[in-house]
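[Q] Does anyone have a clean structure-token version of this?
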Amino acid sequence: MWIDDQVLRQCDQPIAIATWVPQSPMVVLGSSNDPAREVEQTYCADARIPVLRRYGGGGTVVLYDGCVVISVGTWVKEHFQNAKYFRALNACVIAVLAKRWPKLSECVTSGISDIAISDHKIAGTSLFRSRNYLLYQASILIDLNVDLVTQCLKHPSKEPDYRRGRSHSEFLIGLRDLASDASPQDVVELMSRNLNGIMRDVLGDELVSPASEQFAGLLARAGTVTSIDHCRCHPTTGESSGRAERCPKQT
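[A] Here you go.
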């Protein structure tokens, strides 16, 4: 089961949140990314690192045990307004992190949807929309393994202005670089305790009740596979096998 499937299958809930730490490396493409342009495919194949694809847009990321992945499914008032919802949900993630590490209140949304601090990216996010339903995903760097990122990913074919052509090592930063006591499990526990409540406070009237007439379409997406090879991803362990253009899913 891919993490997006788990959240989509809870679309009858006003807010569904899944937070996890991958136990082995994987590359995850945005919905329209070309693996030939974004991924060091020979390295990933030789290292048996699966290349997967999420429903949401955004850039290609490497997930591994030094990251935390957050998937949120919720119902919102507007069918569009993606920039507004990116900013609001990023603000929720930042607010949760700042409860434990106040310095992280300096984080901002940069580019289209990155979470950054002092011009360095600490988290990438993506959004999948289906009318009132919103599926948001953030991958937060805790222990930055820049060697792995560089081995798996080419310089992105599209980059936000604030990156200014910088290499992965010059552009990325891990939470532990800012807070030496941080760990992936700390972040999982922090998000699990606080994110739902902060979302309700920040989004307020933007949140609406689940639209039952939309459930069938969302559930039909979960588990859909169009793949190079089939893959399976388990959100509680991050285990995966195979390589895929589209994961069993949805993130």
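[Q] Thanks! Anything notable?
[A] The longest helix spans residues 184-203.
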